[in-house]
Amino acid sequence: MNFDRPAANKNMFTGNQVHDNLTARKVAKEVVELLAPHIELILTGVLRTCVTCDNFDKKNELCKLCMLRPPAEVIATGCPQYEEQIPF
Q1: Is the pLDDT of residue 87 over 90?
Q2: What is the DSSP string of 29-81?
Q3: Quick one: how far is CA 70 from the chain centroid?
Q4: pTM score, whole prediction
Q5: pLDDT attached to residue 2
C-alpha cells in the first residue's frame, strides 16, 4: 500500500476476483480466530489481566496459583482462574 500516493492504490486489489474473495475470506477467518479469546473483553469492556488479579504477585511477577511467571498472552488477557476480591 502506498500512503504517499493514494492514487497508486486504486488498482491494488483488482485481479482474479475468485482469488480475491478467497483471500478476503481467509483473512476474515484468521482475524475472527485471533480475536475469539478476546471477544468477552471487547464486549464487556472488562479488563481481567494478571496485573489486576489477586493471585498475581506483582513484586515478583508470579502467579500465586502455580508459582510461575505467566506467558505474555496470559498476562495481557487473563485466565479462567482470574480472581478479584471486592474491597467492600
Answers
A1: no
A2: HHHHHHHGGGHHHHHH-----GGG-TTEETTTTEETTTTBPPPHHHHHH--TT
A3: 16
A4: 0.45
A5: 47
